[in-house]
Structures are given as structure tokens and as C-alpha cells.
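> forwarded from #structure-qc
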């Protein structure tokens, strides 16, 4: 070890730097060596301080917390206690403390320090749980070793005596922290320490073990904790900061330090570790609650016996040995699901699924012992599965929220990948789209949970639940996950034991699980080609019914940005039209007058008569009522999701003229209104009106907007600015350019670098127009820039369908040439390239 016995920081600093730069030493050896090096330095500081302050025996330097465990990351705080026996005077103690603390501060190291007697330390620990937890890891550095040993003995004794009172307090602290920081195993930018399943929870498990009340399942726990510590070390080294949050822009560099392939490999490793710690925490806290519950029930019985009142009436709650049958070979005992004494997992291959289904249906956890026994002894299922196994899987998936905990228990012991080998590729796989709340595997389970609430809407709930579980299974393979998933779904469905017809339906559901929502939000539903293409892909009414429910379940399980009343109404409208086609009714034709509400017709007539724009602004805080605002009949499924905010509906009717779409979008951007959805189409005026003077008709723009800051603007102000923009007196381009320049001058916090816009032609989407699809990062004025880019190419925008999903905008524009015909393929490609080049340039240009 490098000599750091000089009390100055220079020797320690040089030795510390050499240690951190040693590529050959990392992980636990480096953390331990850094702690040893720091011990030597602080010991020398204590020795020099004792001499200068004139203090004899009766002082010790003690490492607590992470430093006490010998786990120093490159930028870790130093948690140090200066312990004394109370014989030295206050001025001498202050001089000793200054002699130690100031060199640490001069080094720029974070220091959490205190000066206490053993009684003071115990008293503070009794009042502050965090202090008590830190003292559980107390380790002697230098000075009076007996003083440290006595403190450790008394602190541990206090902790064990107070555990029935303090452990519930610790549990509440862990739960509150998890709610505040989220679950580590699902976060794109996780806090390695504070999030649920992180290093704090691992420390809590050590504290529980020290109480002697319960112990965590040990398998894999130390390794998981070590991987999180390694990731934190790499994060400190790559950023040079004492940070616990693994930001997106730092993940590739951290992965490189750890020798991993890329950021996805890093996140998957972190998620695996967090899942182990979270599962161990769940199991351990259940055991703590069981022990405390048993103790509270035993004391009254003992008091009754000692008081001479023998009998069974003195206790409260069930006998710990009482067992209630749940299914063949499965019983409930003490709030958990365990195997019956007669169960033979080595002879009953369906038992794991039967036990899981029984636990989920009862809303109870599977005991750790039961899951491990099943994992060790259960025979593999024959292929195809027997009918009972398939039925038990469907029962498990249909149990609702309680499915999640049971599924996690099976997964923790490797039973899921044994039942469904393809699951391994999606297990703990991150999803980079911030709209997604979960990893791929958890999203699939959450989708099944959501689908279980919709099972009364479909005739084949079994197919709905299995499709929910498999719809994203292709994300573990390269290429289009829907295409890959179709192949996997066929194999899995056959393995589970579905017949050929059901396998075909499941494959179709997986292949087209995005079809309804993408078509409804990005295509013109009044174009007969749109409806016919969906009908051809779906093939039958039963599949359409299942796909409708799967679409909603998938979106609800994705996150709050993926589903809304507006999206639900669009999907329901599409399903209604496709159902009619599948029933043999002809698809609507663009030549048929499009449906308009009374309000839309009134606005169109007023715009035609006045020759200017007319606006209607409606704040919407509830789900669309049947037929409201021209929408189809739609309401949330009973028992699933209730009314929800959908923003503000803005209707604009304006005489058709060049530049209406970009001009209106620019006015909204000036008023700091974010466009969440938009639709543009021509409105059929009442026949009794003489439209000879309005050769170009009236356009209706339906917007769903939200205020970026503050409150919504008044409709009169919007109309005034729209008038000025249309007559040229308000320079939208210049005003937006000024704002963009201001943004560049005073930038916001830097986020993830967004991929460049992509503009493509959607082939075969319409017979009467060409569909140009734009995918880009949502930003103020984006729709204005797209509209101007299309206008510059000379095409006519027949209708537009704008959809914003999180930070991503996916907009579809139905365009024609000057004669009203679809564009030639080559011309359409050129248009798409021109628009993409324009959007790739500087905004506002």
C-alpha cells in the first residue's frame, strides 16, 4: 500500500489518483483498496490531531455507512464519526475535529461528520433511523479500538431490541422512497441508489438481517448489489461527479468503462440486478410482517395462560399451522400460497402453473419455499401442453393486478423461461421510447393485466390474454418486431396447445397489434382504401373484436401518453367502419358527403358568409360523450378507465386558400399552444347555399391543443391573429424565427439528442391521394414548418392527420397534384425528400 502517513492531502491525493487510474483493478478490489487508503490517511490525521490537541486515550475515528462497509466509490461521501469518552474538554475536541475535517474539505471530498460520545451516538440513533442504520455498519479506523467495539455492541443490541418498532418505520421509509424515485428496473435514467431495487434497498436488507427477525434470500443478492456498485463506480469515473443518476447521454460511456457492448447491455444488467434486489425485498418484508404478526398474536395467548385463562380464546388471528386448500396440491398458509404436503412436483408437470393461477386468483403471494421447490423438482411440460396447463396459464393471466407479483416470483426462479423459452430475449429488455413505462417483459404482463379487464368485451378472452402476453415478443429479435413476433407467436401458440385456427388468429393479432391505432390516428378514415386495407388485414369479425381490445390494453399498459379519449374514439370509429365492411356493406366513398356536426356546419356557413376564419374553443375535461363534437359513440369500458382530460378542442373554419394549414399552425405556435392532434378536411356546405362565390369551398381544421405555459388564449385573439396572418400583416415566419433565436440564446436544459426527421411515402394507403408521412421530434412550430415545406413543393393538402405520442410527432398528409390526382411514385418520393431536407435544416428558416 502506498505510504500516506504524512497528514497533508498531497500524498493521499497522488495515491488516490494512481489507484483510480489503474485499469487492472476495478470493482470490489478497487473499492476496498480506496477504503484502506483513506483509512491510512485519516488515521495519520487522527494521530497528528491527538498529539497537537493534547488528548490522551479515549478518542477513536469510526467509519459508518458505505465507508464503514469498505465500499468507497470514486466520488463517495466520507461518513466519519469522531468518537470520544467525554473526558477531553470541548476546545481540545474542536481542535482535534478541525485537524481531521479541514484536510478532507481541502481535498474537495464530501464529508458527513459528527463528534459524539457513545451515549450521544446511541441517543441520536434512537431518534433518527438513518443514523442508526449508518451505525450498524460502524468500522474502526484508528484510535481507541475498545471504544468502537463497545459502540458496535450496544448499537446492535439496541437495534435488535427495537426491531419490532423500527422495522415498520424502515419499511415505510423504503416505500416512500420508491414512490418518489420509481422502480430502478424500469427507469431509462435510473437513480442507482435511491430508486426501488437500488443500493438503499440492499442496505435495508442488511439491516433486517442484523435484526435477527428475518433474512433475505441470498442467491444472487451480493452479485446484484456488486453490479450496481460497479455501475456507480463507472458513472463517477466517466462523469467526474458524485452522481447516482445514470443519465441517457452518459450510458454508452459508462458501458464502455465496464466493458459492455452498449447502453442497452448496461441497462439490462442494471435491471436484472434491481429485479433481484426488489424481489428479495418483497420476500423479506413479507417475512418481517409475518414474524411481527405472529409475535403480536402470541403475547395475548401467553398473558391468558399466565393469568390462568387456559384455552384457545386468548389469541387473535389464524393459527400459524392452519392450511386452506386452494387447488390440487396447493394450499394457503399464513397469508401465502404453499404446496400441500401431498404435492409431488416431480410427478405433476402442471403444478407450477396451477399454483401460480391459484395464488393470483386468491390475490396472495407464492411463498419463496414453494417457488424454489417447484423450480428444483418440477418436470417439464410435454409439447403440446395438456389442456389443463393451457387453462391454468389463461387463469393466471386473467387474474388482474395480482398476476404481476406471482409472475415475478416465477420469473425470479427461472420458471417462466422454462415454460416459454422465447421469453429470455425480452426479459429485462429496455425500451428507449420514453412513452413506455416498462421493460418489454413487464409491458407484456401489464398488457395482460389490462386485457383481463376487457375480457367481457370479447367472445374469446383466452385468445385476447395470450395475444396480450405475446404481442411484443418479437422485440427480442432484429427487424420489425411485429413480423418477427408473428413467427414466434405461431410457435408459442402451438406449443401451448391451441389448434390451427386459433394459432392463425393469434399470429394475426401479434402481426397487426399496431394496425388500428396507427391507422386511426394517421390515416383518413373517410378514404375507402383505408377501411378496406384494415378489413383485408384483419380478415374476420372475431379477430377485429379481439384486436380492438388488444389495442386498448396495449396502449393503457404503455403509459399515459399512449391512450386518451380522443385516440379511443378514433379507434372505435375505425372499428365500426371495418365491421361494416366485414359484414358486407360497401365502404364509404369520398364522393359521399362527409359527416359534419351541427356546430361544424354552422362554423363553415359563417366562414363562407364572412369570407374570414371562424373559431370555436372548447375546454374539455371529460371523455367525449356519444356523438359529441362529431366523434363516434365511445365511452370507457366499465371497470377500466374513467373520464380523462383530453386537452382543448379548437375548431377553425376558413375559406379555402393557399397556406391555411401552415398559417393556422404558426398562429397556434405563437400563442404557445402545443398541437396534440389535428385534422384538416374540406366541409360540404348545405345545398341550399349558393357557393358560386366560394369557388374553393371551406376548410375545417379540428385541433386538440394544450397550453405550453399558463392559461389558454382567448378565441378572439386567436381569430384576430389568424386574420392578420392570412392577409399578410402578421409575419409568422419572422416571429417564430425570433423566438427560436431567443431559445438558442437562453437554452433550456440539454436533453437527449433526437434523431433527425424522417419523411416517407406510405404506399397503397389511398387510391385518391398520396400519403406523405412525417416522423419527427415534437417542437414548437413543427406543424407550421411541415405545412410550409409541403406548400413550397406545390402539392395540395387534401387532409392532414397529426398525432403526438410523447416527444414524437407522427403526421400524415394526404396530398394531390394541381389536378386533384395522386402523385406519380417518382414525384411523391421527390416531394418527401424535399420536405425532409427542409425539416432537417434550422427551424424557422
Amino acid at each position: 500500500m502506498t505510504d500516506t502517513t504524512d497528514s497533508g492531502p498531497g500524498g493521499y491525493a497522488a495515491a488516490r489518483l494512481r489507484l483510480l487510474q489503474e485499469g487492472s483493478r476495478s470493482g470490489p478490489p478497487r473499492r476496498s483498496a480506496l477504503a484502506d487508503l483513506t483509512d491510512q490517511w485519516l488515521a495519520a490525521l487522527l494521530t497528528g490531531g491527538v498529539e497537537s490537541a493534547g488528548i490522551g486515550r479515549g478518542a477513536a475515528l469510526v467509519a459508518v455507512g458505505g465507508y464503514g462497509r469498505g465500499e468507497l466509490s470514486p466520488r463517495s461521501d466520507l461518513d466519519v464519526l469522531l468518537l470520544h469518552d467525554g473526558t477531553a474538554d470541548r476546545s481540545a475536541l474542536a481542535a482535534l475535529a478541525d485537524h481531521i475535517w479541514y484536510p478532507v474539505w481541502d481535498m474537495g471530498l464530501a464529508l458527513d461528520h459528527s463528534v459524539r460520545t457513545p451515549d450521544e451516538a446511541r441517543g441520536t440513533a434512537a431518534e433518527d433511523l438513518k443514523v442508526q442504520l449508518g451505525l450498524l455498519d460502524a468500522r474502526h479506523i484508528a484510535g481507541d479500538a475498545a471504544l468502537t467495539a463497545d459502540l458496535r455492541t450496544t448499537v446492535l443490541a439496541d437495534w435488535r431490541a427495537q426491531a419490532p418498532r423500527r422495522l415498520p418505520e424502515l419499511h415505510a421509509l423504503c416505500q416512500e422512497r420508491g414512490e418518489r424515485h420509481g422502480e430502478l428496473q424500469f427507469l431509462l435514467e435510473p437513480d442507482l441508489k435511491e430508486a426501488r431495487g437500488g443500493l438503499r434497498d440492499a442496505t435495508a436488507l442488511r439491516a433486517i438481517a442484523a435484526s435477527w427477525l428475518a433474512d433475505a434470500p441470498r442467491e444472487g443478492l451480493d452479485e446484484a448489489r456488486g453490479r450496481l456498485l460497479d455501475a456507480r463506480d463507472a458513472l463517477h469515473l466517466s462523469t467526474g461527479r458524485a452522481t447516482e443518476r445514470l443519465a441517457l447521454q452518459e450510458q454508452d460511456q459508462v458501458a464502455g468503462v465496464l466493458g459492455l457492448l452498449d447502453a442497452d447491455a448496461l441497462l439490462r444488467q442494471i435491471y436484472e440486478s434491481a429485479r433481484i434486489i426488489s424481489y428479495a425485498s418483497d420476500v423479506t418484508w413479507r417475512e418481517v410482517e409475518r414474524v411481527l404478526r405472529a409475535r403480536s398474536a402470541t403475547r395475548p395467548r401467553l398473558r391468558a395462560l399466565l393469568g390462568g385463562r387456559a384455552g384457545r380464546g386468548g389469541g387473535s388471528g389464524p393459527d400459524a399451522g392452519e392450511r386452506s386448500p386452494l387447488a390440487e396440491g396447493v394450499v394457503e398458509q399464513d397469508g401465502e400460497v404453499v404446496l400441500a404436503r401431498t404435492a409431488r412436483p416431480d410427478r405433476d408437470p402442471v403444478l407450477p402453473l396451477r399454483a401460480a393461477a391459484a395464488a393470483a386468483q386468491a390475490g396472495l403471494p407464492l411463498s419463496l419455499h414453494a417457488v424454489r421447490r417447484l423450480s428444483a423438482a418440477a418436470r417439464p411440460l410435454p409439447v403440446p401442453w395438456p389442456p389443463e396447463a393451457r387453462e391454468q396459464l389463461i387463469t393466471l393471466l386473467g387474474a388482474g393486478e395480482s398476476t404481476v407479483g406471482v409472475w415475478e416470483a416465477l420469473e425470479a426462479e427461472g420458471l417462466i423461461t422454462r415454460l416459454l423459452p422465447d421469453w429470455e430475449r425480452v426479459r429485462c429488455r429496455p425500451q428507449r421510447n420514453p412513452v413506455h413505462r416498462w421493460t418489454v417483459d413487464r409491458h407484456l404482463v401489464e398488457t395482460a393485466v389490462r386485457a383481463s379487464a376487457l375480457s367481457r368485451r370479447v367472445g374469446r378472452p383466452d385468445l385476447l390474454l395470450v395475444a396480450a402476453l405475446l404481442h411484443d415478443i418479437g422485440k427480442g429479435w432484429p427487424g420489425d418486431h411485429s413480423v418477427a413476433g408473428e413467427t414466434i407467436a405461431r410457435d408459442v401458440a402451438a406449443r401451448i396447445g391451441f389448434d390451427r385456427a386459433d394459432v392463425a388468429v393469434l399470429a394475426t393479432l401479434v402481426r397487426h397489434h399496431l394496425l388500428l391505432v396507427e391507422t386511426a390516428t394517421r390515416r383518413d378514415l373517410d378514404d375507402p382504401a383505408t377501411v378496406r386495407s384494415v378489413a383485408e388485414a384483419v380478415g374476420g369479425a372475431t379477430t377485429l373484436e379481439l384486436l380492438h381490445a388488444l389495442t386498448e390494453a396495449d396502449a393503457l399498459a404503455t403509459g399515459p401518453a399512449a391512450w386518451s379519449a380522443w385516440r379511443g374514439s378514433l379507434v372505435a370509429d375505425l372499428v365500426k367502419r371495418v365491421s361494416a365492411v366485414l359484414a358486407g356493406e360497401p365502404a364509404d366513398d369520398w364522393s359521399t358527403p362527409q359527416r359534419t356536426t351541427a356546430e361544424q356546419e354552422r362554423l363553415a356557413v359563417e366562414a363562407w358568409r364572412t369570407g374570414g376564419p371562424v373559431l370555436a374553443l372548447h375546454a374539455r375535461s371529460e371523455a367525449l360523450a356519444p356523438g359529441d363534437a362529431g366523434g363516434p359513440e365511445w365511452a370507457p369500458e366499465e371497470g377500466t378507465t374513467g373520464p380523462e382530460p383530453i386537452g382543448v378542442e379548437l375548431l377553425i373554419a376558413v375559406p379555402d386558400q393557399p397556406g391555411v394549414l401552415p398559417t393556422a399552425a404558426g398562429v397556434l405556435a405563437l400563442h404557445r399552444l402545443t398541437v396534440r392532434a389535428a385534422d384538416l378536411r374540406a366541409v360540404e356546405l348545405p345545398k341550399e347555399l349558393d357557393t358560386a362565390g366560394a369557388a374553393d369551398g371551406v376548410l375545417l381544421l379540428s385541433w386538440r391543443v394544450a397550453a405550453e405555459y399558463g392559461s389558454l388564449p382567448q378565441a378572439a385573439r386567436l381569430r384576430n391573429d389568424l386574420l392578420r396572418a392570412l392577409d399578410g400583416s402578421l409575419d409568422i415566419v419572422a416571429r417564430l424565427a425570433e423566438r427560436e433565436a431567443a431559445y438558442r440564446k437562453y437554452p433550456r436544459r440539454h436533453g437527449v439528442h433526437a434523431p433527425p426527421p424522417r419523411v416517407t411515402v406510405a404506399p397503397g394507403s389511398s387510391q385518391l391521394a398520396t400519403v406523405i408521412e412525417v416522423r419527427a421530434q415534437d417542437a414548437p412550430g413543427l406543424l407550421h414548418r411541415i405545412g410550409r415545406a409541403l406548400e413550397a413543393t406545390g402539392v395540395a393538402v387534401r387532409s392532414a392527420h397529426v398525432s403526438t405520442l410523447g416527444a414524437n410527432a407522427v403526421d400524415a398528409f394526404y396530398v394531390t397534384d394541381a389536378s386533384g390526382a395522386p402523385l406519380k411514385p417518382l414525384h411523391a418520393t421527390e416531394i418527401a425528400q424535399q420536405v425532409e431536407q427542409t425539416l432537417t435544416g434550422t427551424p424557422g428558416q
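QC bot note: The chain has a mean pLDDT of 85. The longest strand covers residues 673-683.
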